[in-house]
């Protein structure tokens, strides 16, 4: 059965205990109530772990170092399946398994989660990277009942015996596959989560542990993380705000955008309206070879995503984050003093070589904590920075570039021209300050910049400040221009 978790609006600043309701009935799920989020546990037989970025796939994070992907068509089908939910997030059983492995981690272990007659398996290395994963379907109770080979009175007992044998076969097959693919270590323990299936140790000759989990709590933790600006869900979850003025608001925004385009792009009477917004026309005279601005921007965004995932906890409230090129500083409030040691520190050490608790003191019943991180691990983001040739034949002055940037960002954005750096090429630098609801909105802004032919790239420091209702985000935008353009 599908698992649905309906929760009231979570407020981590006030640290209120959230009401939860686990509901197995899809049709009766209370998805229409105000101020609720719905967490859906969705299984997909074609999920791929740690697949390289590909435009044909929808990719999300499992944590700071692992991703999961489904095809774009499967992603469309998923959204269609749950389109009656107003505000929901969808997680994979792999999310449940990985989240609970971290709560009960055993070295050199094969970890198993049983959900909807599918066995999910994960093996982690010592950096928490998934080095082996697989999922296999086994017989359901209904499958066995429909065979008519067994007396109904004994069916539950026989069902347990049959699926235990099937699990044994699945484990043996996957261990053989793992050992063929890797000889880095031997599996010492098999940890089975959330099922009554018994695996006989004498049959497998490996220590076996049954670890109970609370699915409701796990979904709640994942929902809390998603609300703390992450990309763990296949579908985007937003702060629930119902308004009767949605259509007029959209019309107002559309009119405002058109008016701003008219103001910032001067035209004469002979200029067609369709040319008001355009890229600079180029010939083939001047070629500027640079690092691809898409690669630069995507690397910065992946760093931001990983950092938010690493520090996420149900009992925390982020005040301030300063992200530099190879380091970061975090000011965060914890409800419990030991949260940093128990979870945050290990997560951050997957990103940085040095993680230091600089200060921690109690203030307003919260543990105000300052964390300093240095020496970024170079290969953690797994994004290849490419070079690209940019054709440039028209000089864009700082004022014109300011107007181009303004039209890519929200109307409330503050943009300040900083300086011009003239070496072999001309470099314009701009300070940007924008208030957004969450980092996901920043990711979308950078996606818009990536669509430009102009080499506009985000630069450090990137600063996030929580003002209680929104995130104030400060960063640098840089524009490269050939000094020979004319």
Question: What labels describe this entry?
Answer:
486 residues; single chain; 29% helix; 22 strands; alpha+beta; five-stranded mixed beta sheet; Nucleotidyltransferase, domain 5
Give a brief description.
The protein has 486 residues and is of the alpha+beta class. It is 29% helix and 32% strand.
Architecture of the domain at 96-211, CATH level 2?
A: 2-Layer Sandwich
**Spatial sequence of strands, sheet with the most strands:** 16-17-15-14-21-22-20-19
Dominant shape: elongated
Number of strands: 22
Low-pLDDT runs: 7-33, 239-247, 265-284
Query: Class of the domain at 96-211, according to the CATH hierarchy?
Result: Alpha Beta
Largest sheet: number of strands, sense, barrel closure: 8 strands, antiparallel
Measured by DSSP, the beta-strand proportion falls in: 25-35%
Distance between the termini: 65 Å
CATH topology (fold) name of the domain at 96-211: Nucleotidyltransferase, domain 5
Assembly type: single chain
């Amino acid at each position: 059965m599908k698992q649905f978790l309906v929760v009231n609006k979570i407020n981590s600043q006030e640290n209120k205990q959230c009401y939860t309701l686990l509901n197995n009935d899809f049709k009766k799920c209370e998805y229409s109530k105000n101020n609720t989020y719905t967490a859906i546990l969705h299984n997909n037989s074609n999920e791929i772990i740690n697949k390289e970025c590909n435009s044909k796939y929808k990719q999300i994070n499992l944590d700071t170092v692992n991703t999961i992907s489904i095809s774009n068509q499967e992603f469309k089908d998923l959204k269609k399946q749950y389109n009656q939910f107003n505000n929901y997030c969808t997680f994979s059983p792999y999310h449940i398994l990985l989240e609970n492995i971290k709560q009960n981690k055993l070295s050199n272990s094969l970890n198993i989660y049983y959900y909807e007659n599918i066995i999910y398996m994960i093996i982690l290395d010592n950096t928490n990277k998934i080095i082996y994963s697989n999922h296999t379907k086994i017989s359901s109770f209904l499958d066995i009942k429909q065979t008519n080979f067994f007396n109904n009175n004994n069916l539950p007992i026989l069902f347990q015996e049959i699926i235990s044998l099937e699990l044994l076969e699945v484990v043996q097959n996957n261990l053989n596959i793992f050992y063929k693919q890797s000889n880095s270590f031997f599996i010492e323990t098999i940890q089975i989560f959330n099922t009554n299936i018994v695996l006989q140790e004498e049959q497998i000759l490996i220590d076996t542990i049954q670890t109970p989990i609370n699915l409701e709590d796990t979904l709640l933790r994942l929902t809390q993380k998603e609300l703390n600006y992450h990309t763990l869900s296949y579908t985007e979850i937003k702060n629930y705000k119902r308004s009767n003025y949605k259509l007029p608001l959209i019309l107002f925004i559309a009119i405002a955008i058109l008016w701003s385009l008219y103001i910032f792009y001067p035209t004469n009477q002979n200029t067609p309206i369709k040319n008001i917004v355009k890229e600079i026309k180029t010939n083939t005279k001047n070629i500027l070879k640079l690092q691809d601005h898409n690669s630069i921007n995507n690397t910065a965004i992946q760093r931001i995503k990983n950092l938010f995932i690493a520090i996420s906890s149900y009992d925390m409230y982020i005040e301030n984050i300063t992200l530099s090129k190879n380091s970061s500083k975090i000011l965060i409030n914890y409800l419990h003093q030991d949260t940093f040691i128990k979870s945050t520190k290990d997560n951050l050490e997957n990103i940085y070589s040095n993680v230091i608790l600089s200060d921690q003191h109690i203030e307003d019943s919260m543990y105000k904590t300052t964390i300093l991180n240095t020496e970024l691990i170079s290969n953690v983001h797994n994004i290849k920075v490419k070079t690209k040739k940019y054709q440039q034949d028209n000089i864009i002055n700082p004022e014109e570039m300011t107007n181009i940037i303004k039209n890519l960002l929200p109307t409330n954005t503050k943009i300040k021209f900083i300086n011009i750096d003239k070496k072999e090429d001309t470099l314009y630098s701009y300070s940007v300050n924008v208030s957004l609801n969450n980092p996901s909105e920043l990711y979308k802004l950078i996606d818009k910049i990536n669509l430009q032919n102009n080499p506009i790239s985000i630069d450090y420091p990137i600063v996030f400040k929580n003002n209680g209702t929104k995130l104030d985000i400060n960063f640098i935008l840089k524009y490269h221009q050939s000094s020979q353009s004319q």
